[in-house]
Design goal:
This protein is an alpha+beta fold and 164 residues long. It is 29% helix and 18% strand. The termini are far apart. Belongs to the HIT family.
Length: 164
Amino acid sequence: QWVYNILEKKAETDRIVHENPDPSSGFVLVPDLKWNQNQLDDLYLVAVVHRREIKSLRDLTAEHLPLLRNILQEGKEAIAKRFGVPSSQLRIYLHYQPSYYHLHVHFTALGYDAPGSSVERAHLLADVIDNLATDSAFYQKRALTFPLRADEPLFKKFQEAGKV
């Protein structure tokens, strides 16, 4: 609901750093709730797409390249303008599995060891764009490794199926 409240301007409108209102290739860039915005060492923003049918990395195809390129370019520009952080000092990635199923992209300070920014869960946006430009169905076909905590419901399902 937090995501929809942002997209519908019911909440956090004062926190929006950038918005591209295009319904197909637009997004809203907001500070993540984990970042207190007092220092840049742990800079953490999230780009939330307007399109509701894109749930995760698995849904992406070459059709979404304009959206992903907008997020990459406009997100970097907005962060440089507002916070003075150059794109060379940003880590820009998607989680798989995501913490919520509405496509969003993380922007963190390069030196910040943000939760889920490691290779097992984070997929760099620039790599995602390159992969989709090469093969539109890349993420429908590719095996994706991801970590699970023992208390997660999905882990329990893997256990019950004898896959762990």
